[in-house]
Design goal:
alpha+beta; 54% helix; three-stranded antiparallel beta sheet
């Protein structure tokens, strides 16, 4: 057994290093994806409710849950928004939705 280890020590070390690197890079990639968010620009006639309503049809969340999520993410006390405001939408919600062109900017 020890001759097997001695004979293949470099291959074993290389395998362990490559396996560690693969696991590490996968963890970093997944952490980066979770921290991403998307920004939407408020159009004329839109409110938090109408924006949430569009996406509640395509997700398993209610309109009110999406409104509350948007308020929390954007640190809004009230539901008032105006044309041109930008709203950050967390990636966890974006993954649940079929995205339209409404999402215009990806942040880092």
């Amino acid at each position: 057994m020890s001759t097997f280890i001695e004979k293949y020590i470099y291959a074993i070390i290389l395998f362990v290093v490559l396996l560690s690197f693969t696991i590490y890079s996968t963890m970093i990639k997944e952490a980066g994806e979770d921290s991403q968010s998307y920004v939407i620009v408020v159009d004329e006639g839109e409110s938090l409710w109408t924006i949430a309503e569009k996406y509640s049809k395509e997700s398993n969340l209610t309109t009110n849950e999406i409104v509350q999520l948007l308020k929390k993410e954007n640190q809004l006390t009230y539901e008032m928004i105006k044309i041109g405001d930008t709203l950050t939408v967390p990636n966890q919600l974006v993954k649940k939705l079929e995205l339209e062109t409404h999402f215009v900017v990806q942040t880092e």
